[in-house]
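Contributing new records

If you add data, match the layout below exactly. Sequence lines come first and carry their own label; structure lines follow with theirs. Keep one chain per record. Anything else will be rejected by the validation script.
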Amino acid sequence: MDTNIKLRIATSLMFVLIAAKLCNGRTATQSDEQNPRQMKTLAGSWEGHVTTSPQQAEIEGKLMRSRLRTTSMGHTLMHEMTEAV
């Protein structure tokens, strides 16, 4: 067998074994299905004062509005942050 083919087979087998180890026979659980539903409950608007670490004098203490909303038919949570007026 050609050395190049042996190397390709060995590399492919290595990736399959790594993927199998990472998956570790894991299947979807009820908590995996609940996580997206829990994330959707965060949707809404909030206002608060900014605290940064390390401090950024230009925005430190300013009033900001944060908005989380679901998009993409409920599959994505989008975050928007603007200065409150």
